[in-house]
Amino acid sequence: MTDEPKSGQVQETGLTTTTEQTGELSATETEASATMEIQAAYLMACKYPRKEEQAYAEIQSLCNLPEFAEDTSAVYRKPVGGGHEVEGAGIRLAEEMARLWKNIMIRKVIIYDDEERRKCRWTVTDVQNNTSYSEEKTIKKTVERKDGRNREIVSERVNSYGQVVYVVKSTEAEMQIKESATGSIVTRNLILRLIPHHIKNMAIQAVKNTRLNRAKDNIQEGKRKIIDAFNSINIKPDKLEKYLAHDLDTISPTEVVDLRAIYGAIKNGETTWNEVIKSKLETPDAPLEPETSELPEDFDTSFDTGDISTHTAPDAPVKGKRRGRPKKKQEGELFE
Q1: Please, which pLDDT band fits residue 10 given cuts at 50, 70 and 90?
Q2: Are 148 and 127 in contact (CB under 8 A)?
């Protein structure tokens, strides 16, 4: 006779509740916890309603601060295929917009957990407008490493360089990194669905303008920061010069801003340097269609974070802006 899974510890921080346990969670317990949390949030929203003009001004002021705009997670730029690139609000900018927009509740619940995988649900709710979006992700409890010594090896493969790469059981610390990376991107996307379009555009442009003005004031400092940043993810100056098609000594303020946005996308697992170069060499095809909330049936929304030290993307593509982007496997990409 198999014992029913037991509930774990419930930890609450602000408006975020995390419930951990092995196996399927008790639906009654989860629903009761969610109900109490949402009721409290709605009461706070009624007592302290959002002031949209004030929120707009505060978001704009934040984006005008060089200290914030220089954050690599503020605005990103990444390739989406066909020679096209898109830019958008990064994780840090989304979190700050949610904080200043107010009355937005963010909740994560672990709904399944066993030895091989963990399934989480992230929900973001505008409690003032009674609008909510959620998304579930299954995170495998494995990571890929070049060295499999002293690790529990699950499988192995040979990459395109003929090197053996090991799929090993993740440690708790590695699992926390994977879960955090997945949750950051999922939460970012859900938050941006709640923020009005004109505010998102204003914030992105304000960050770009602040970065550009900073680069114009001291182009040498901007160049040095770009070199140091890419060097930290093993992308050397000669590769940057190949991307720019000229020496770094003649880098422009606009190129500094573009490279900072690309670095942010790579560092946060949105893209890889190989994908950036590939997109640079491609001839742009037809213009991208307008962004839509409808996705084709075969669109792949899975996410399994990669290793930041290799500046490589997850095994599955991160959701892009091109409508109808087909599901594809990226076998052999990690550690190449």
Answers
A1: very low
A2: no
Identify which has the larger pLDDT, 174 or 269. 174
How far is residue 57's CA from residue 99's CA, in Å, rounded to a whole number? 13
Greater confidence, 221 or 328? 221
Sequence spans of domains, the chain: 1-141+173-288+301-336
Contact between 301 and 185 under an 8 Å Cβ cutoff? The reply is: no
Between the alpha carbon of residue 306 and those of residues 199, 271, 274, the distances in Å are 31, 10, 14
Q: Which residue has the higher pLDDT, 283 or 331?
A: 283
pLDDT for res 26: 58
How many helices, marked H, and strands, marked E, lie in the chain?
A: 10, 10
Q: Tokens 């493969």 identify what position? A: 157
If phi over 0 gives left and psi between -120 and 50 gives alpha, with beta otherwise, what is residue 23?
Answer: left
Tell me the three state secondary structure of residue 224: helix
CA dihedral 325, 328, 331, 333 (to 10 degrees): 0
Using one digit for the tens of pLDDT, what is the confidence trace for 113-165? 999 999 999 999 999 998 999 999 999 999 999 888 889 999 999 887 788 99
Q: What share of the chain is helix, strand, coil (3-state, %, to 5)?
A: 45, 20, 40
As a whole number of Å, the CA-based R_g of the chain is 21
235 φ/ψ angles, rounded to the nearest 5 degrees: -115, 110
Query: Residue holding tokens 């317990």?
Result: 29
Tokens of 103: 């009355």
Q: What is the structure's pLDDT at 282? A: 74
